[in-house]
Specification:
The complex is a heterodimer of chains A (about 375) and B (about 500).
Chain A lengths: L22 H23 L1 H25 L3 H6 L2 H12 L6 H14 L14 H12 L21 H9 L15 H10 L4 H8 L2 H6 L11 H13 L6 H20 L7 H6 L3 H8 L10 H21 L6 H18 L22
Chain B lengths: L29 E2 L5 E5 L9 E2 L6 E2 L4 E4 L8 E2 L4 E10 L7 E9 L20 H10 L12 H5 L9 E6 L8 H8 L1 H15 L3 E7 L3 H11 L5 E6 L8 H9 L14 E5 H13 L5 E7 L7 E6 L4 H7 L9 E4 L6 E2 L13 E5 L1 H4 L12 H5 L6 H9 L3 H6 L10 H5 L6 H73 L1
Parallel strand pairs in B: 1-14, 9-10, 9-12, 10-11, 13-17
Antiparallel strand pairs in B: 2-8, 3-5, 4-7, 5-6, 7-8, 13-14, 15-16, 15-17
Helix pairs in contact in B: 1-4, 3-5, 4-7, 11-14
Classes of the chains: A mainly alpha (about 375), B alpha/beta (about 500).
Chain lengths: ~375, ~500
Amino acid sequence: MNRTGRRLTSIISGPYTHERTSVNRTMLLVMIALLPATAYGIYIFGLPALFVFILTIASCIISEAACLALAGKPIRPYLMDGSAVLTGWLLAMTLPPWSPWWIAVIGAMLAIVVGKQVFGGIGQNLFNPAMVARVALLIAFPLEMTQWLQPQPLFSASTPGFIDALHITFGTGWAPAYDALSSATMLGYVKTELGRGMALHEVLAHNYDVLGLATGSVAGSLGETSALLIVTGGLFLLYKRIISWHIPASMLITLALLASAFNLANSERYPDAVFHLMSGATMLGAFFIATDLVTSPVTYKGQLVFGVGCGALVFIIRSWSSFPEGVAFAVMLMNALTPLIDHYMKPRIYGRNRKGEPIQYADDME
Amino acid sequence: MSNVATRLFRIRGGVHPNENKQATAGSCIVDMPLPELLYIPLQQHIGAPAEPVVQRGMKVLKGQLLANSQGVISAPVHAPTSGIIRSIGKYPAPHPSGLPVLTVTLQADGEDRWIDLPAEQTSALNLDPEDIASRVAAAGIVGMGGATFPSAVKLNLRNRYKLHTLVINAAECEPYLTCDDQLMREQPEDIIEGVRLMMHAMQVSQAIIAIEANKPEALTVMRQAAQQFDSISVVTVPVRYPMGSEKHLVQTLTGKETPARALTADIGIVVHNVATANAVYQAIRHGKPLISRIVTISGGAIGKPANVRTLIGTPIARLIEFCGGFTGDPAFIIGGGPMMGQPLPQTGVPIVKGSSGILALTEAELARKTTMPCIRCGSCVKVCPCGLLPLEMASRARAGDLDGAVDFGLMDCIACGSCAYVCPSHIPLIQYFSYAKGALTEKQRMTHKQEEIRRLAEARKQRMDQLAREKRAALAKRKADMAAAKARENNADAAKQSRAGA
């Protein structure tokens, strides 16, 4: 054989060129997109938020490594894919900014172990791991998971110092001194007041500040408050083609249409579309949670169905359930439907009709 | 019928790989000097291998028949230069397996002397269409885009289908390759003449030459050459891989999808490669068989990339030397383009009729990464030009569920590689599909075999039963005959006795 030429490397199939894509790159771009909203969240909620953020991600990495070791999988390549970091990052963004350390740790373990690794690791999970953790925490620890506070920006007089921040995150929780800072989220506040029989215009009269909701200088989860910065990150992902417009657009439009319709019908009971779009986890959910590649449908048409479902469920849960916020539940319910959507929304195969039979042309062709 | 395609239609999916055509685009075709030894495989086409008509030690002239076609789908092979037949035996094929095929080894005598060529045929359009097709068959012309299907068979499709259009595939959508581009720039009139001959052979009234928009020079000269013929239009098609897939090219031009498992001829269209049109011109006008072609030699590990006109049978090692040798360390040497081409087992293998390119690619150009699990991003679904679900097909194939893979469209896959090209997890999807297709064929063969065995066993049983029945019947008949004879005898005896007694 060598007589006729040099022997080359072992044979694998083509193509022998590849787009500059990889799982790490995808995860890295999502993290870059999350950076502005995260940085802003840490800025307005101070050092305890930074601690929660770091702790959640670190716990996710450790949980992932432990699971991989148990499963006998190679640890390095899987840890380096960035998916555990991203899961931790997304989870941290949905936590109350001054959560105690164990919320972060338990949440991270729930996300990685229950949400992801028991299904078989990356790509195999049915539900968005961060949302699995968030929902489980909310049900198990309703008090800690709804402890919100007014923004206390870094470098302002009211922000806790390093030692105080350590106490808040790693100590026994909130010192009584900080009780004055606590505040409900806009969604929570409206739900409570409406529940007490108040009319919406009275409820919103004092506290409603659209600009605050847009920029994010309001009480809320660590990284969810600034609708504008999250949308900026989402647009970046659209530009980089990591996500497509189908899920965010269909989800936001459905939510807006439902909100507007009910608001028109009864404006004292149902807040308008702007309120729904700007508050809570709507934007984070639409651009970062529902668009999770693993747990959303693979076809554009399927993604539209998925988005519409998410939007409708968010509105239903917010309006008629006992929870003020419904993004996590809505996305998880639609995650459960994803295999079904994928089954029914297959693309039509070239040269075949929808039923899979070869196309037939009428005989009277030119 | 309009002679200009006024609008184009969108195809589904597709990708835009780095073209990497700049290394060879626009540089003149150079002639490869005569190599000392030529290895001419007798199977350079789809179908039955050709049967040698020469013997070892024979002296042959350039263009002389070396091996004759066998059967309906086959193609003859001719001597690329004059010289002596050194051997007829097994030699590694330019195929990933490197398995040996029957090959004629020809030692060039350096005279490069032609057989007696016929006088130039200037009125070929007066020939019978059948005659053109048979001359094309005799010249050993096969699809030169890489598919290597015998061209004459396609010209004769007019007998079975109602054809109306000839499409000339000059999309050249594979990265790196510029051999068709350069051929069009240098020999537009020859190509147009070839197209007219093919139209005549197929008895169609129009031809569309489809060229991707990234070849403006070729478009200009081809338009000029085609200007005087109303029936030939030159159409700019968008740059998108796999535009050169014939069914997708036809869809782009006409908006019509070819029905699954059918030919484009079913919708009245036959597609030929542009280099094939040139070969047809050479064969009909000058009587020259297909013995050379233009090959793009390129890739990051090639010293001086070029388009080379070379004889069929030239070892690729000679071509690579001619193009400045290796500059870097090639990770792979590919025959064809990087999307659908195949790795060559070694550089000793020869150029064949379907070799459009020889690429020596460096590790950096391959952009290989470790395979990770599928993250269901759906990129493969979005780029698939056939509307398949590559991720599902691959997971089924991996689990050995072949029927499941077929349900998701395995048999409709054209193996264009778009899915594997975009996969962020770097999953070798095409490898899974090739495996599954192979396993499926094997399974079908087994099923067929089992059914045959059952059928034969059944038939044998029936035959045996029949024999047994016949035997029984014969036995019974003999018994009855004997009984009857005996009865007759008894009767006769009785009669005799009674007569005697009377």
